[in-house]
Design a protein that fits this description.
heterodimer, A: 334 residues, alpha+beta, 4-stranded antiparallel β-sheet, two-stranded antiparallel sheet, 9 strands, B: 65 residues, mainly alpha, 2 helices
Chain lengths: 334, 65
């Protein structure tokens, strides 16, 4: 996909007193492990970039706002009464399968289960549940091809609403079984980081553009999480070769008008990983109703391309391994 | 104006019908006020921003909201 004539990264808005750099708050260059902190979307309004977030809310088109309001309305059911009749779980593996099938029946296209860990919880927040059921629902590609334009922004919000709906229904289903469950809907979630959980749950891997890449949908999907104590078997992370592709592919780096994507992995809160320059990305994100260029130009996001890329990467790895083994064998020959 | 944010755990688990109705009523009021803000305060911001854009001036988000 090629984005034609994206707006220039010049801005008719700004700060009189610039806030603390988002990269600093995110812990760019920091060697020690620490929890993530809010910068932009934060209802407590203590986040450094709240004014810009407020401005973003006000200049948003009605098409996106109506989905957000509808999402807020449906999220009143994110938590609720738990049935007093508890279904005992003798086989967590069978229960995990049952839950995944339910999620798929409700419309989820990606489902995985993992344990909720510290790196997925925002600083100062608590998640009183053990398991995370990570859910992904794809966005309509024909709408997202309009990035960076409000039409794509509207589709993003529609997808968040849809994936929240699935999470809410799943949480209600679990509560009806007598187990507590809480649907962390998006983009309104302020306690939980969905991407690290989804990666741990085997939905995909982190891409160079800072979003998760799945084999089937690339980055053209949205995430939600259901947190619960229902005993479930957890999934393992997957290796679909995203790093192999991202190390050589420069597509998002080149196509990002704000020049926000680092070509190499960065040290962020004690971990080397792909990272996007927050201070460059967010103003462009605000200017263009949510941008999303990087996730749409990603080769994995092109329909049908993901499985092909994974197959290629795996074949290359196999070839390299066999060449290496042959070399070792030959080297060992007397 | 608090347009697009919600807060996790803002809706506590409640079990009686009355409490649920109360919760839904409060939320409906909140959504109505968000909508009102979007079409009043938000419209003013959008107008101001467009005017500043036209004059090639900068809208200061920490000062002019």
């Amino acid at each position: 996909m090629k984005v034609n004539d994206p707006p220039a990264p010049t801005y008719a808005f700004g700060y009189e007193s610039p806030p603390t750099s988002g990269n600093e708050i995110n812990g760019l260059g920091r060697k020690d492990k620490a929890r993530a902190r809010h910068i932009f979307h934060d209802p407590s309004e203590n986040a450094a970039w709240t004014a810009l977030d407020e401005f973003f809310s006000r200049i948003a088109v009605w098409g996106t706002v109506r989905h957000i309001l509808a999402n807020i309305w449906q999220l009143r059911r994110q938590n609720g009464p738990v049935s007093t009749h508890r279904v005992e779980v003798d086989d967590p593996c069978a229960m995990a399968e049952r839950i995944k099938t339910k999620a798929q029946d409700f419309g989820a296209k990606l489902v995985g289960i993992t344990e909720i860990s510290d790196e997925a919880i925002y600083d100062g927040r608590e998640i009183p549940y053990r398991y995370a059921i990570c859910i992904g629902a794809p966005m309509k590609r024909e709408e997202m091809l309009h990035v960076p334009h409000e039409r794509a922004g509207i589709e993003v919000m529609r997808s968040y609403r849809e994936v929240s709906r699935i999470a809410i229904k799943l949480a209600e289903e679990i509560r009806a079984m007598g187990w507590p469950a809480y649907a962390y809907g998006n983009p309104n979630s302020t306690d939980i980081l969905h991407i690290p959980l989804a990666i741990k749950a085997g939905l995909g891997q982190l891409g160079k553009h800072g979003s998760m890449i799945s084999e089937e949908f690339g980055s053209n999907f949205r995430l939600c999480t259901v947190a619960t104590n229902l005993p479930l078997t957890m999934d393992d992370p997957v290796d679909i070769g995203v790093d192999d592709v991202c190390l050589h592919c420069q597509r998002c780096v080149i196509d990002c008008p704000a020049d926000a994507i680092f070509p190499e992995k960065q040290l962020v809160r004690g971990e080397k990983k792909w990272y996007v320059d927050f201070d460059k990305c967010i103003p462009y994100f605000v200017k263009t109703d949510g941008c999303a260029i990087c996730i749409e130009v990603c080769p994995f996001s092109e329909p049908g391309r993901g499985p092909w890329l994974v197959e290629r990467v795996m074949a290359t790895r196999k070839k390299r391994t066999s060449m290496h083994n042959n070399g070792s064998t030959q080297g060992n020959d007397p | 104006m608090r347009t697009v944010r919600t807060i996790d755990r803002q809706f506590v688990a409640e079990d009686s019908l009355f409490q649920r109705l109360q919760r839904d009523g409060r939320l409906l009021l909140r959504i109505a006020s968000m909508m009102l803000s979007y079409f009043t305060i938000g419209a003013r911001t959008r107008r101001l921003y467009a005017a500043k854009q036209g004059r090639k001036e900068i809208f200061l988000v920490d000062k002019e909201l």
